[in-house]
């Protein structure tokens, strides 16, 4: 069974068509990069998966659950990391992790919380600092740790490497790849051509409201990938 299956999904906002027959399938342990410029429909796709929006036509299925009909049940299998991860500024990374997992009905002791944050790449020293001192990359690591604690089957990432320096971007990719290796399906909405070449198993070019090209990035170099992307956007 696919972790995520979107079938002929259409979504309009007034006269503007955001998605026009989007088909997308994602299996366990797979990293799929949804590539497109701002306004291409990437965030709309994520909001449909989360059940915050309902498709005008088509089905969004998460682990066998219709996300439009049972959004709360579908979201039990999803972890979402937005472009800017919101944490409580005066609380430490450890406290933020334990707080948000408690809201999800989980109980973590300090030792397990620290283990998860370490796996996500946050140093022991940083784990005890207030989140207001964190960089974007550090906040994302807390988000990844929350996803791991919840054993999420589907991880949604919205422009995760935007604003990260090369070192932080590479570290974030390592953590995401490790999550996929543990069986988590990852959908990454991005326009970062370089990073997806190193991270994604498949790349979908989102154009005119549908996946116009489904690419194996391992078969292409960065130049060829960029050329396909630009050609699709020009049609």
TrEMBL record:
Keyword Transport among UniProt keywords: yes
Domain ABC transporter: 4-233
MF annotations from Gene Ontology: ATP binding; ATP hydrolysis activity
SUPFAM superfamilies attached to this UniProt entry: P-loop containing nucleoside triphosphate hydrolases
Entry keywords, A to Z: ATP-binding, Nucleotide-binding, Transport
Alphabetical list of InterPro entries matching this protein: AAA+_ATPase, ABC_transporter-like_ATP-bd, ABC_transporter-like_CS, ABC_Transporter_VariousFunc, P-loop_NTPase
Family matches, as Gene3D superfamilies: P-loop containing nucleotide triphosphate hydrolases
Cross-referenced CDD domains: ABC_DR_subfamily_A
Record has Nucleotide-binding as a keyword: yes
Membrane spanning stretches: none
UniProt-recorded name of the protein: ABC transporter ATP-binding protein
Species this protein is from: Steroidobacter agaridevorans
């Amino acid at each position: 069974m696919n972790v995520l299956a979107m079938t002929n999904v259409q979504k309009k906002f007034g006269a503007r068509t955001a998605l026009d027959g989007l088909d997308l399938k994602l299996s366990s342990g797979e990293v799929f990069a949804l590539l497109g410029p701002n306004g291409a429909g990437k965030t709309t796709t994520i909001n449909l998966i989360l059940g915050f929006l309902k498709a005008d036509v088509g089905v969004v299925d998460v682990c066998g659950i219709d996300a439009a009909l049972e959004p709360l049940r579908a979201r039990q299998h999803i972890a979402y990391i937005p472009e800017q991860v919101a944490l409580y500024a005066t609380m430490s990374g450890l406290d933020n992790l334990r707080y948000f997992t408690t809201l999800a009905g989980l109980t973590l002791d300090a030792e397990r919380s620290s283990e998860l944050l370490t796996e996500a790449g946050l140093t022991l020293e940083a784990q005890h600092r207030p989140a207001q001192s964190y960089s974007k990359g550090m906040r994302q690591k807390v988000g990844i740790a929350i996803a791991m604690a919840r054993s999420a089957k589907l991880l949604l990432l919205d422009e995760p490497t935007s604003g990260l320096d090369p070192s932080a971007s590479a570290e974030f990719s390592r953590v995401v790849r490790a999550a996929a290796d543990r069986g988590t399906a990852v959908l990454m909405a991005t326009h970062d051509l370089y990073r997806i070449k190193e991270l994604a198993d498949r790349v979908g070019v989102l154009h005119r409201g549908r996946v116009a090209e489904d690419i194996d990035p391992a078969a292409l170099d960065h130049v060829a990938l960029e050329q396909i992307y630009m050609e699709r956007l020009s049609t």
